[in-house]
Design a protein that fits this description.
Length: about 575
């Protein structure tokens, strides 16, 4: 029975799609004709894996579905990885377990970390006596095959894996755990083509040894990656002014170490990047295509180049996105798309087009088989239309336009304010910005006459460790264009700030999920505290760093209306716009 099901699953190719609805963005799947095969219903949907399953997210939990949409594993996991050799690592309650093709957990032991299975072994780690975590390997049944005894461990490949036994001691082992060789160096990197990068001292230069431990290329590089197809990418610079190059197995220079970036692309090709701005190399690169002999095949014209697959590679010049062949020329008989991003040629010939943060699907002749709608119907005559604003290659905003309001002047005022809140503003098309910005929106909720729009943004200063997200909720009465504030929910003169501050403080004190809040950082809410409403509760949230670490995102607290009923102005326009 299982064999038949797997056959039917694998014979049906589906692709993920995102659709904006009145309840936010929902994910589903289409077939290669562009017909919806699994209706949009998930919070997120990943591509189908070779085994015939896809990871989907629902109610903040991840599960596995087959191509009929049936659950193989219910969406109760915090994380589900990628299948490899018929097994997949999953997380539930901060612990890793191993899952088989039937969605069943195998093995009795859980771990604090687990990688994918390779050569019948998966890297795992767990705290040992004394509190230090150690690494080892499990087999396909989840049983420990190599004891957790290493300070670090890598995946098996071609029957070998590199492990760190202790400081200044690395080893190459077999799946049985038997050591092939031991290396007494401060650092040893992952093997490639029989060579391993190494450093004799912690902050010294990097060179290469062979699997026996013999030095084959003396240490002279600031950074050196594993060999692949007889070539390795190296960097001579220890600062921000990169000096990337490529060497062969004898240490001879193939591509001079003078570049800001180099990417290996398969098919014996490299994307070689010059800094877009030599004074600020961290802003990024503009790329040319080189071959394995170091010959430059194109000018420096590409903003992006992906690895080759099926003989072609996706490339973009910042204005259009297309496929190139091995010579770097636009591949014949393939379409060109306006915008920047990447293209993925599927095994069945369908092209996944990821352009300007939107995904659509096309045939090789350029015919679009599916693309996301740009209008979200509310109720007749109201709707929200998506508009795109991209004045500069580093500035992209999708913003909402409300349509169907009877009062044309009110509609104009609403949309003018939404553009401002969405950061639609004059940007020099030719300027090199020192940051990138992306903005988007969702209809968070629509009920009766109240439209709640979530406006999100992400500003990333080039060279920074991370960017800063933004989140604004606009509450709009579609009948008159009124924007509501937090105070509008409550009776005039009521001390809603004091009551809400107390309720949020009690949640921080008593609910373990808020353990991440910085001690002493919460002193109450503001009169104009960021908020949004739902059917049953008021949601109050804080910006990153306000009361919690960046990783906590936007700490959000739910206040049921029943707890603040005496304060709510039930005769007010705000409450009556969505309630009663």
């Amino acid at each position: 029975m299982a064999v038949n099901r797997f056959f039917s699953v694998r014979s049906r190719v589906l692709y993920p799609i995102a659709v904006k609805t009145t309840a936010g963005t929902k994910w589903g799947y289409i077939n290669n004709n562009g017909t919806v095969a699994i209706r949009p219903q998930y919070e997120y949907a990943n591509p189908f894996q070779l085994i015939g399953y896809a990871v989907v997210e629902l109610n903040r939990g991840q599960g596995l579905i087959d191509s009929s949409g049936a659950y193989v594993a219910q969406p109760v996991y915090d994380y589900i990885g990628s299948f490899s050799e018929g097994r997949v690592p999953v997380i539930k309650g901060n612990n890793y377990r191993l899952m088989n093709e039937s969605g069943e957990l195998v093995g009795e032991q859980s771990f604090s970390y687990m990688a994918e299975l390779h050569d019948g072994r998966a890297v795992v780690s767990a705290p040992q006596e004394g509190g230090d975590s150690k690494y080892g390997y499990i087999d396909r049944q989840g049983a420990v095959a190599i004891p957790l005894q290493y300070e670090d461990a890598g995946d098996f490949s071609h029957g070998r894996a590199l492990v760190k036994v202790k400081d200044h001691e690395f080893a190459l082992i077999l799946p049985s755990g038997v050591k092939l060789a031991t290396y007494n160096y401060a650092f040893v990197g992952q093997p490639g083509d029989g060579y391993l990068p190494f450093r004799q001292t912690e902050n010294g230069k990097t060179g290469y040894i062979n699997e026996l431990g013999t030095v084959v290329i003396p240490p002279r590089y600031a950074m050196a990656l594993p060999f692949e197809s007889g070539r390795a990418i190296i960097n001579m610079s220890e600062g921000v002014d990169n000096q990337y190059g490529v060497i062969d197995r004898q240490g001879n220079t193939v591509i001079k170490p003078i570049y800001n970036d180099i990417l290996q692309l398969n098919n014996e090709r490299f994307a070689v990047g010059k800094a877009r701005n030599t004074e600020q190399p961290y802003i990024g690169s503009i790329y040319a295509l080189f071959d394995n002999a170091g010959k430059q095949l194109t000018d420096f014209i590409f903003t992006e180049i992906d690895p080759f697959k099926h003989g072609v590679a996706s490339a973009s010049d910042g204005k259009t996105t297309f496929f190139i062949d091995g010579s770097g020329k636009a591949a014949p008989d393939f379409p060109v798309f306006n915008g920047s991003g990447n293209l993925v040629l599927m095994d069945d010939g369908i092209i996944q087009v990821n352009i300007d943060q939107r995904t659509l699907y096309a045939l090789r002749n350029g015919r679009i088989v599916w693309q996301p709608a740009t209008t979200i119907p509310l109720r007749t005559p109201y709707r929200v239309k998506e508009e795109k604003y991209k004045p500069n290659r580093d500035y992209l905003v999708y913003y909402p336009i409300v349509e169907g309001m009877g009062d044309v002047a009110a509609e104009h005022r609403v949309n003018k304010k939404l553009r401002e809140l969405s950061q639609v503003k004059p940007i020099d098309p030719e300027a090199q910005l020192d940051y990138s910005y992306t903005g988007d929106f969702n209809v968070a909720w629509f009920h009766k006459n109240l439209l709640v729009l979530e406006l999100t943004g992400y500003r990333f200063p080039f060279g920074a460790a991370h960017g800063m997200p933004s989140q604004i909720y606009s509450h709009i009465n579609v009948t008159n264009g009124q924007f509501y504030e937090l105070k509008d929910l409550f009776k005039p003169g009521s001390d809603y700030v004091k009551t809400l501050s107390r309720l949020v403080g009690e949640q921080i004190k008593n609910d373990p999920q808020y353990d991440y809040v910085f001690p002493g950082s919460y002193t109450g809410i503001k009169p104009d505290q960021p908020f949004y409403v739902t059917e049953h509760a008021l949601k109050l949230y804080f910006q990153p760093y306000d009361i919690a670490p960046y990783a906590a995102g936007f700490p959000t607290f739910s206040i049921p209306y029943s707890q603040i009923e005496s304060l709510i102005n039930k005769q007010g326009d705000f409450w009556r716009s969505f309630h009663g």
